[in-house]
């Protein structure tokens, strides 16, 4: 299968999901409002907790509202990356399209990648909505942001997180439901990854744990790029760490996913719900 | 008719026993001990229509799913044209269309046309070629007027016809059908049988392997009948040959005598 054909197929998945989403326009309006409530909550929380001591722990030039907003908005990339691949399998199980897809001339990795494209595009839009509400109503001001570096951090994060997502899809295809590893990764990442507070406030062992998960580097790099407007020299270590995670996790996840797929074809449970 | 289109050689399939509770976690690693196919061999020539018949649990669906690359056999070999379904599934998938009678796998909020266009794209068919093929197969299935409607508004029979249209969309040389007329009303089923036999098999030379419990359908469509029971091949002959060899007046009688299924013997007594 050539690259053009693969891209056409991935595009077909995107248009499929867009066409389905057209039927839920009301949900888009409600999600935009929900984002407003979320951003407002962080704003008032930040007014309550902002102190000079706290400010010293935050990246230069930022305040707690901006810190929490970026953490909240970009932590979603981890959630969606881990969930998008197995959610696409679960959805195909639920509407019974998996078998029909598997007998087409499209390999399962392309089916997974295609199905994950729309959730990522929707997430990018949601991130813009979050940051937009913050800028419009609550004084979030990323004027000095290093946008190219922020985009580089985002892409490296997606690559690193996708490995976890494909591992999760491998679990889903083998065991069909429940995925304790997914919730452990999300829970640990939320606790020690620096979503709501800098990791410097954590005890030493948890700080060490934080250094072993990709979301820490993702949030650090994103805050440095968006809030402090840091240059490439400051941001590069975060990008390098994320690329190392991707270099390890992606081949490992593809190998394990391939093994899981073969096992389910042997046990005859590939299309079982 | 001499070229082999489907070849099944000593095909065996064992499944692991179904495990419940915490043991279900071990299911992917469990030893396959339940026999579904026990050394089945037969061939189907290009342009031939062959029916798989046998009682529930005979191994018909398992055999079709192996050929459709959805299951890997335990032992033996199955090929579609030149493609070994285990080792070259991508090549195999270019050659067959697969449909099961219970197939309702569509996106309910998309129209019939949008669904078919999506699955056409998955088979590398896009643009005007896709539009032409969708109109053709929808016409065959009698759903051309309904393609603009969302699939969630379709009746079971219409969804089934849409599934058959999907299987035919890429013009496969081999059709693998599992109880293809299960959800169709009698008129639609008769139309579909005519389409299979006259249009696809006779006119286009499509190779057809289908599983069915409807014996008048088997007699109408099949050049040959492969009878399975308990994963074993009991007979492989034309409907007439089966009647002659068993001395039965009907295909049903022939199959009952060959299968010697306890339930059937009680029925005979």
List its salient traits.
heterodimer, A: 273 residues, mainly alpha, 11 helices, 79% helix, 0% strand, globular, B: 269 residues, alpha/beta, Rossmann fold, 2 domains, 6-stranded mixed β-sheet, 4-stranded antiparallel β-sheet, 10 helices, disordered C terminus
Distance between the termini of chain B: 41 Å
Question: What portion of residues of chain B belong to β-strands?
Answer: 15-25%
Mean pLDDT of chain B: 88
Low-confidence stretches of chain B: 263-269
Number of helices of chain A: 11
State the assembly state of the protein chains.
heterodimer
- Judging from the principal axes of the Cα atoms, what is the shape of chain B? globular
- Spatial arrangement of strands, main beta sheet of chain B: 6-7-8-3-9-10
Instruction: Please identify the structural class of chain A as seen in this structure.
Output: mainly alpha
Count of domains of chain B: 2
What composes the largest sheet of chain A? none
């Amino acid at each position: 299968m050539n690259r053009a054909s693969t891209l056409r197929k991935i595009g077909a998945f995107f248009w499929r999901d867009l066409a389905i989403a057209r039927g839920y326009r009301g949900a888009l309006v409600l999600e935009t409002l929900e984002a407003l409530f979320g951003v407002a909550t962080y704003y008032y929380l930040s007014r309550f907790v902002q102190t000079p001591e706290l400010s010293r722990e935050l990246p230069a030039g930022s305040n707690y509202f901006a810190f929490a907003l970026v953490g909240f908005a970009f932590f979603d990339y981890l959630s969606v990356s881990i969930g998008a691949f197995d959610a696409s399998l679960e959805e195909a199980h639920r509407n019974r399209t998996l078998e029909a897809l598997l007998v087409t001339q499209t390999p399962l990795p392309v089916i997974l990648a295609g199905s994950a494209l729309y959730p990522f595009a929707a997430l990018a839009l949601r991130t813009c909505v979050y940051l937009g509400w913050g800028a419009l109503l609550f004084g979030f001001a990323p004027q000095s942001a290093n946008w190219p570096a922020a985009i580089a951090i985002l892409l490296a994060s997606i690559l690193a997180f996708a490995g976890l997502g494909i591992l999760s899809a491998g679990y889903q295809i083998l065991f069909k439901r429940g995925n304790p590893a997914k919730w452990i990764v999300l829970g640990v990442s939320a606790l020690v990854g620096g979503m709501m507070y800098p990791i410097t406030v954590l005890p030493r062992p948890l700080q060490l744990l934080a250094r072993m998960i990709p979301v820490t580097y993702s949030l650090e790099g994103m805050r440095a790029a968006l809030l402090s407007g840091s240059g490439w020299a400051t941001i590069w270590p975060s990008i390098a760490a994320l690329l190392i995670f991707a270099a390890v996790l992606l081949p490992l996840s593809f190998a394990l996913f391939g093994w899981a797929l073969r096992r389910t074809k042997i046990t005859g449970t590939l299309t079982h719900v | 008719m001499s070229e082999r289109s489907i070849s099944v050689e000593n095909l065996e399939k064992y499944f692991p026993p179904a495990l419940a509770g915490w043991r279900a976690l071990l299911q992917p690693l469990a030893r396959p001990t339940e026999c579904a196919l026990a050394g089945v061999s037969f061939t189907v020539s290009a342009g031939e229509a062959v029916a798989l018949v046998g009682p529930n649990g005979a191994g018909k669906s398992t055999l079709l799913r192996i050929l459709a690359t959805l299951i890997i056999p335990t032992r033996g070999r199955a090929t579609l044209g030149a493609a070994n379904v285990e080792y070259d599934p991508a090549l195999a998938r270019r050659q067959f269309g697969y449909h099961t009678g219970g197939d309702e796998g569509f996106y309910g909020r998309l129209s019939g046309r949008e669904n078919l266009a999506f699955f056409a794209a998955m088979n590398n068919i896009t643009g005007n070629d896709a539009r032409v093929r969708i109109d053709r197969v929808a016409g065959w299935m009698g759903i051309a007027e309904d393609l603009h409607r969302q699939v969630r508004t379709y009746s079971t029979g219409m969804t089934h016809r849409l599934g058959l249209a999907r299987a035919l969309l890429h013009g496969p040389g081999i059709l693998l059908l599992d109880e293809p007329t299960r959800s169709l009303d009698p008129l639609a089923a008769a139309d579909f049988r005519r389409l299979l036999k006259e249009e696809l098999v006779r006119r286009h030379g499509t190779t057809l392997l289908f599983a069915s419990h409807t014996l008048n359908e088997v007699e109408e469509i099949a050049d040959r009948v492969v009878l399975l029971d308990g994963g074993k091949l009991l007979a492989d002959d034309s409907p007439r040959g089966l009647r002659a060899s068993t001395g039965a007046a009907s295909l049903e009688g022939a199959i009952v005598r060959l299968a010697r299924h306890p339930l059937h013997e009680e029925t005979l007594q």
